[in-house]
Amino acid sequence: MNGPGTAPDSGLGEETEDVRVGVYVCHCGGNISDVVDVKELAALSAEYPHVVVAKDYPFMCSDPGQALIVEDIKAHGVNRVVVASCAPALHEQTFRRALQRGGLNPYLYEHVNIREQVSWVHKADHAAATRKSLALVRAGIEKVVRQDPLEALRVSAERRVAVIGGGVAGMKAALAAAGAGLAVTLFEKGPALGGRLPELGRVFPTEDEGAALSRRMEEEVRSQPAIEVRLGAEVRRVDGFVGRFSVEAGDGPPVKAGALIVATGYDPYAPAPGEFGAGGPLTVTLPEFRAALEGLTEGPLLTWKGRPIRDLAFIHCVGSRQVEGIHAPQADGKVNDYCSRVCCTATLQTAERVLDRHPGTRVYDCYRDIRTYGRGHEAIYERAARKGTLFFRYREDAPPTLVEEGGRARLRVKDVLTWDTEVDLPVDLVVLATGMVPRDIGALADSQKLPRGADRFLQEAHPKLRPVELANNGIFLAGTAQAPMTVDEACAAAGAAASKAAQLLLPGEIQLDPFIVALKPERCDGCGACLDACSYTGSLTLSGEGPGRRVEVNPALCKGCGACVAVCPTRALDIAGWGLDQFEAMADAIAAV
């Protein structure tokens, strides 16, 4: 059994006479066999050295297909397996479990993708597709014959999750994790729970007051004995690794946690002075306007700071969907080219609210596109239109301009809906529908090297297969730390993150793939080039002095990316199960075909 500080065997075995390979080619219901001659591929593979059996089958991932592999392991002494089928992300674990049922080490297996890499991209040339498939299968055989048995890494786990951020997503994640049986420490850097939820006014689609919803959730959190709440506790540092994180926040003692849920939220975009008149007396941002709207006295006309508002205009996409060369860049030199998703619905809900409470106020809506996605949200757009909102659509390269004139303003917009007619609207107040920007979480992001997307929000490992997981093991995402979301979407993501954390921690031991850095100590000269190349804090460290200086590997932190292998001048490093000798043999096999 391997643990932190102990790397697995290198997986760099030499060819031996008793290697017996089974090759299994999947038809994939015609996805592969309509292009690739799977029977010829199996027959040619059977002639290759070390191959003792080669078969094709309509669906290798099916129970009968897996049974073929299990039977051949037992009947023919197959001790290495190559499966040629679809992408490994779909069924790699399926076939590893089949090997285990046959009594074989699950890592003595190679998955060759001949669907996405061959049949789906070479439909016009069946003969060439078959030749390419043969090259890939032979490369897989050469790799697996050099494969040593590996053992999964096992790390003991703290059954506690640290939730960073006490907004709606953080509270929901804490409640879900506690309900699943985990202890929870909820860190909030501010003086109260709730985050931005109390500022939102009425939230859609339920029309609940954000402040009341926040209070109800806080009461649930504080009534849950498994949840410890720490206020005024900004996270300063996170050390450790999956199963054994140490979180330092505020003035309290460090907290040991097996997993982290990052629910640090967002900040509303702050328009630059002068942007659509921002900073002047005739403009206000949508979050500020919504927060104040419910407190205003109802009447024929909306009254804002003592002024009657006869004409009110909303401008969409302020700080979102920006265009390079048209909009001013942000601090990092980039524009916010993403959609903030919730602004359209929030704007139209606010417009409807104004018309209900102040029917004498005319409402104009200047937009690029209306994106009221989600169940029930389109109805908000329809109601706002029926109640009198006038819509003007502008092009991305011709945003509206605002000119102040004696206590009022003139909003000029080229309206796409009337063939680019320039419309001049007299307005008393302009509401800027500002988008979301990622919150600065520098200390946390730096200590764990958290990945960010092009939009600067934290980036999930895979949008479909691992939607709330970071590439960093044991760290999950909840809410708008990941992307702009509605309240219900943030709660759904928080529940998913808590479920992932519970699945990981409740067994008390975490099993990790062994495909990590393997060290040949006799070759290491302690130069440290690998540490500079590594993107995962703490994965590699140097110990010793002088000639005895050597690299040490923390298996629980290493991701097996291979960046360190590429820069090692003495070839002291390799990836278990993906050795350089395996790559060289694979390349030779492909070149031969």
Features:
five-stranded parallel β-sheet, Rossmann fold, single chain, FAD/NAD(P)-binding domain, 15 helices, 25% strand, alpha/beta, 32 strands
Would you give an account of this structure?
The chain is built from 15 helices and 32 strands. The chain folds into 4 domains: 1-152, 3-Layer(aba) Sandwich (Rossmann fold), CATH 3.40.50; 160-265 and 439-510, 3-Layer(bba) Sandwich (FAD/NAD(P)-binding domain), CATH 3.50.50.60; 275-436, FAD/NAD(P)-binding domain (3-Layer(bba) Sandwich), CATH 3.50.50; 516-575, 2-Layer Sandwich (Alpha-Beta Plaits), CATH 3.30.70. The relative contact order is 0.13. Mean pLDDT is 92; it is low at 1-16. α9 packs parallel to α10. The chain has a 5-stranded parallel beta sheet, with helices on one face. It is globular. With 593 residues, it is α/β, with parallel strands linked by helices. Helices cover 29% and strands 25% of the residues.
Task: Give a short summary of the structure.
The chain is of the alpha/beta class and about 600 residues long. The chain is built from 15 helices and 32 strands.
